[in-house]
Specification:
This protein is α+β, with helices and mostly antiparallel strands and 248 residues long. The protein contains 8 helices and 10 strands. The N terminus is likely disordered.
């Protein structure tokens, strides 16, 4: 299991479905608010266009989206969220990138540092691990949306760089600047994707030792559960036989 794969990922979040949904909505609302700072018209604001697509895919209520965009595009109401990226190493030497939107950088830094320390990891300086990753646009479709050949041809025609088809679905990768164009072309052919976002994709993965897996997953869960955290990327891989034991 690769740490970056959305189709193969273990669900880190625990607890009630309502709590999970609330956390997802909180992250989406923050992204809409910050994206709208560059304009409330999604046609002229690629980041907002992508944020709206993600919000729709997660079934965020339309009136909530409208309020978040209005708040973000208003200088007096946009809030003071900062975009801060943290980088570090977790258990087993796994490289981790955390992207945050926070209105209190001291709180966020303290909470993230504490999560790493508790797991026996360590935070590094900016760019201390990001050189091991590539910034990409990623678009996900369920397997039923199209055949592998149909998705491959449509994605490449739209300007995508790669397409990976697995049992669970299709994952299309493109350059960050091409995300909106590729997403719109695929949406016209196959309907809205289940996911369209920017990601840090590891250039290489490392296999995590069995005795480090539980601690690593607890760290990833703690980071993902933090309301200030927008995304977590890691370069680990778990052997299939180990995954079978964990999910049995």
């Amino acid at each position: 299991m690769a740490g970056h794969s959305k189709f193969k990922n273990i669900m880190y979040r625990k607890g009630a479905q309502d709590a999970k949904r609330a956390k997802v909505f909180t992250k989406l609302i923050r992204e809409l608010t910050v994206a709208a700072r560059n304009g409330a018209d999604p046609d002229g604001n690629p980041r907002l266009n992508t944020a709206i697509a993600a919000a729709k895919a997660a079934n965020l209520p339309k009136d909530t989206m409208v309020r978040a965009i209005k708040r973000g595009s208003s200088p007096s109401e946009g809030g003071n969220f900062e975009e801060i990226r943290y980088e570090g190493y977790g258990p087993g030497g796994v490289a981790i990138i955390i992207e945050t939107l926070t209105d209190n950088r001291n709180r966020t830094a303290s909470e993230i540092r504490n999560a790493f320390t508790t797991a026996g990891g360590s935070l590094g300086e900016t760019n201390s691990v990001s050189f091991q990753f590539e910034r990409v646009g990623a678009i996900g479709y369920p397997a039923a949306a199209a055949s592998a050949d149909e998705m491959f041809e449509a994605a490449l025609d739209a300007g995508a760089a790669d397409v990976e088809t697995m049992g669970e679905g299709h994952e299309v990768t493109c350059a960050p600047d091409d995300l909106n164009g590729v997403r719109e072309a695929l949406a016209a052919a196959f309907g809205p994707p289940v996911r369209a976002q920017f990601e840090w994709r590891p250039q290489n993965t490392i296999e995590i030792a069995d005795d480090k897996i539980e601690t690593l997953f607890k760290l990833l869960e703690a980071l993902d559960d933090n309301d200030d955290v927008q995304s977590v990327s890691a370069n680990f891989e778990v052997a299939d036989e180990t995954m079978s034991k964990l999910t049995a």
